[in-house]
Hints:
Shape: elongated
Largest sheet: 2 strands, antiparallel
Structural class: mainly alpha
Helix content: 55-70%
Strand content: under 5%
Number of domains: 2
Oligomer: single chain
Amino acid sequence: MKFETANPLSMATPIEAITYCIPTFHATPWMGRGISHLAQVFESGDLMSFERLTTIYNLPHTSRYSYIQLKSFLHTSNKDSRRETKDTRELSIWEQTGITAKLPQTFKPLSGCYRLILPYQPLSDSTPAHQWEMDLQTPITERQWSNITSSTRKLIKSAPLIEQHQKTIYRWYMVPLRIHKLYPNASPTCWRCKQEKGSVLHIWWKCPRLIRYWEDTQKIIADTTTIQLPLDPKAFLLLDIPRETPTQARKLMYHILLTAQKLIARLWKTTEAPSIPTLIQDIDNQAIYETSFSKARNRTSCSSSMWEQWRVWKTANKQHVSRQQPNQTQRLDAERGWVASTSR
């Protein structure tokens, strides 16, 4: 098999591998003096002189011919004869570690790769966290983002609501402004109000047709939990709720807010805005599902008090409650949540 070298030759190339390129190259004296990789014969991007190698590694004078072979090979291996030897690619971080580090016998290569890669990953401007920071004009720390991404998994059993949360925070939905960037002929205007550009924040929060909807949702939260949640998209969309909020109140907030988001997504690309009666009906469906889930696992006490608050409020506000039966979409969502949760 013919051996083909990369161009330029990697600085991580073992000296022993040079014999595949130069059959008469004697690598044994070099390796015996501690020169194991090509990077060790370079200094400041240039190949060291033989005298310099002799001083540093005590290379024997009998290796001068091998040095001339190596220098000639590095010079002629470049496609462009005008290139200098210093054009040889420098070592990557992983290559430097593999050459210079004294790895223990228990070293796990894959774990080592992750330990090297993670500290050097810069925060990209395209990450969802950074995009939300730009939209909300407020900083989001790594710890806050970690809490946001994992907040619903411990308190919510409904798979559709957990899915809704993930889709919202990771900006999964295609809004008009994003579609316009991909397809310039598409209109960037909000399809609901037909007045302003349909950015993520506008479609989910700032649209004039949603203002009353979010205000009513805030009032429902205040009445059912006795906590006045600030009318802030960071709380209503990302579920960044104060940590001192009691667990039961937080759980009910999650149900109300995620159901409110889900109704907006259900009316995607329409001019309609969700209604409060529909929101209440959907939360009722979640109450039925959560109660059934708790009974199946003998944990009725954990959720009974929370949903009792909800039922008391609903009874006192009958004028808001729709008499309509849940439609097919709502029934399918409830079934999806039950099947996904019981299968975990």
